[in-house]
Here is the input.
Amino acid sequence: MKEYPILCDKIECYKKERGCNPMKKDRLIVLTDAVLAIIMTILILELEKPTTPSLEAFWDLRQNFFACFLSFFWLGSLWMALNTLWEKVEKISSEIIWWNLFLLLERQEFSLENFMPSKIPV
Here is the structure.
């Protein structure tokens, strides 16, 4: 295996400057924002549409709309809280990356939209 001392030295120097992980904080923030935006978009797109354009048809789907509203608000609150937390983070470690990925997976899997009455099998 060939060694590239100049490249290896630059990587080691970079790791020391960044705190053992060469990932920049901005990349993780962008990933988090993108995943939350996709989850929120899918949440709206999967919302069941009324069969007829009437108030009665909308009223029949009120539980679905309410669950969607709560999930959207909850995800938006999470996004705002994460933006506040990211300002305090100075270095990105592997632990932060893994916890962030776990948080995103959990948010996607357990949004209230998955528990809408129309999605629960009878």
Remarks:
- The chain has a mean pLDDT of 77.
